[in-house]
Amino acid sequence: MKFTINRNSFIRTFNDVSRAISTKTTIPVLTGLKLVVESNALILTGSDADISIESTISADDEDNELVVTEPGAIILPAKFFGEIIKRLPESTMTLSQSGDSLQTTITSGASEFTINGLEASTYPQLPTITAAQSLNLPADILHQVIAQTVIAVSTEESRPILTGVHVTIKDNQLLAVATDSHRLAQRKIELDDSVSDADFVIPGRSLNELGRMLGDDVKTVELRIAENQVLFSFDHTAFFSRLLDGNYPDTSRLIPKTANTTIEFEAPALLAAINRASLLSHESRNNVVRLSLKVDEQTATLFGNSPEVGNVEEQLTFTNLQGEDIEISFNPDYMKVALQGVGQSTIEVAFTAPLRPFTLVPSEDHEHYVQLITPVRTF
Amino acid sequence: MKFTINRNSFIRTFNDVSRAISTKTTIPVLTGLKLVVESNALILTGSDADISIESTISADDEDNELVVTEPGAIILPAKFFGEIIKRLPESTMTLSQSGDSLQTTITSGASEFTINGLEASTYPQLPTITAAQSLNLPADILHQVIAQTVIAVSTEESRPILTGVHVTIKDNQLLAVATDSHRLAQRKIELDDSVSDADFVIPGRSLNELGRMLGDDVKTVELRIAENQVLFSFDHTAFFSRLLDGNYPDTSRLIPKTANTTIEFEAPALLAAINRASLLSHESRNNVVRLSLKVDEQTATLFGNSPEVGNVEEQLTFTNLQGEDIEISFNPDYMKVALQGVGQSTIEVAFTAPLRPFTLVPSEDHEHYVQLITPVRTF
């Protein structure tokens, strides 16, 4: 095995593939990067058994400056190899390994590293996904769907199914839902392609890693689903994720259809006020802030309190307060995350009763994104 | 007590004073910020008993937008108060407190916090330094002296005196020395002022905090020394530090006067090579790299090795290699810190024997800065 390559090109692809490589795995070979050198391309693979990422660097792209002298394959210790290649002195580097030896030499300028690799054939096989049918999604939309739903997945392993995002494809509509049973986020998109129905749960962690890989240069992502795996393909990369086993709870009837009180806020201003109020609530045993809406007086007041430290009271700026007066207490951290999910927009918050979940929707598009927060009983 | 102030001006001064405030102190009142409101100025004080910082915000500076309505004094919980003032909505804020109440109200825009303070009179007295004589130092020189010496102080409490920097003023020359017994850094400056002799040891931690406060806007620092305290005064700030008790070891004869081998490197290039070699040495039990200098062949080679992971060999770029061949092993982390201490310059490294300390000095100024590193026996 011998090749020379542009170091930045290699590092970029290595960083992508490294997202799937964990130093904590119980399977030693998975702490390695699998490197396959073909006559015209390199194939880098990383996996933690849940997520596997395979990415190709082609000699056809001149920016890669890839020159393969001798094909071959090896597994290199990923963390260590990554630290080496980041610190090499020149803009290109050469990797070589001879015959049956597992020693790989990395040279760049006057610097020469020799590191011990593992036999490439010991690396686990990647899943094979034979699904003929695929679904193409614009990368920016997929990125948004991920960002807007993973925020509500559970981080507790007591109900593993809730650590994933539930995706349903039906009637040319994709519905993504996540809930940790205290809050819920639901995003809908209309599909251009006509695709067959599907129903699966992807681990939130997989979606987080996938989301981080969808930079501005990625335009379209192709999605294929198998029995217990999903494959996202884009550019030179294949991203595999295990799916979660089990039935996702029925969330379709959780979102209230009617409201007794509605109000609109600028999300960034409300977020800043919630951040201030939570300074106090974080100091108290029950992390709760209180919102008081008075329709006749047209006031919205947010309260935070900690018996030891002090309290805060803030008059919120709002529009369109309608319906009945309400006093409601909730965990400000759920509200923070929900507001980060909507970004710069104006949001409508709709309440039914002090102890019933309330909804947040973007004012300009009620239909496609809704978040639900369960209030806290304080008496 | 009541005043209104520009929030950024206050935060800047608060951040400076906060350097002395620890949340880990065993003296509860020291977790607080002491705030004294005079008719024309605020005085903020923070202390952890070792370091005390007092800083003044004057109404004379219009940028401060300080308007005092009622003088007074209070101690506020520093960490918590800091988080509040950073998150307030408007560019100004008002603090008020009435009569004997310890409750302090902070208002900014529509946001109103009420927090519990402590009685100002319970705050410890700051040291009084009556020394008539003072020494004025340019802030940039003092900053350099600090940066170049604190890197060699000991972090181990087994010999407390070595956690400080030893400062000697004699014959209008200031000498600052630090050593942790594995390496040493010594910086000399000639003084313009004629000052009396002095000899004291300042905790490295105090100097680190002082160094961080000496931004580009500080021009001159006035230094006054008392029995067991030193006071650095600049701009609107008084920085007090406790001095260390005990006799600092005599370091004057540690620095070799002659050398058998000398070589010059560009510090940044050598640093990059050391960083690469240390990748391997960090993986091995004894964290050591080896430097081999061959005068006839005019080669300088750096080796790093880890039996499990692999090895690295690098031909170094150098100038002026003279004297005898030498092979020497040392801890690369000491060399890294030493090279960071000299910045962009060319350095001369001088060796006497494989097991004797070697020196690093800037090539263009041998006189004023010298670092010493003790090699490691590897056989």
TrEMBL record, chains A, B:
Subcellular location field: Cytoplasm
Keyword Disulfide bond: no
Entry-linked CDD domains: beta_clamp
Subunit annotation: Forms a ring-shaped head-to-tail homodimer around DNA.
DNA polymerase III beta sliding clamp central domain: residues covered: 137-250
Cross-referenced SMART domains: POL3Bc (SM00480)
Ranges where the DNA polymerase III beta sliding clamp N-terminal domain occurs: 1-127
Gene Ontology molecular-function annotations: 3'-5' exonuclease activity; DNA binding; DNA-directed DNA polymerase activity
GO biological process: DNA strand elongation involved in DNA replication
Domain DNA polymerase III beta sliding clamp C-terminal: 253-376
GO cellular component terms listed in the entry, alphabetical order: cytoplasm; DNA polymerase III complex
Top-level taxon: Bacteria
Signal peptide, first to last residue: none
Main location: cytoplasm
Protein name, as recorded: Beta sliding clamp
Family membership: Belongs to the beta sliding clamp family.
Species this chain originates from: Lacticaseibacillus thailandensis DSM 22698 = JCM 13996
UniProt keyword list: Cytoplasm, DNA replication, DNA-binding, DNA-directed DNA polymerase, Nucleotidyltransferase, Transferase
InterPro entries in UniProt: DNA_clamp_sf (IPR046938), DNA_polIII_beta (IPR001001), DNA_polIII_beta_C (IPR022635), DNA_polIII_beta_cen (IPR022637), DNA_polIII_beta_N (IPR022634)
Protein function: Confers DNA tethering and processivity to DNA polymerases and other proteins. Acts as a clamp, forming a ring around DNA (a reaction catalyzed by the clamp-loading complex) which diffuses in an ATP-independent manner freely and bidirectionally along dsDNA. Initially characterized for its ability to contact the catalytic subunit of DNA polymerase III (Pol III), a complex, multichain enzyme responsible for most of the replicative synthesis in bacteria; Pol III exhibits 3'-5' exonuclease proofreading activity.
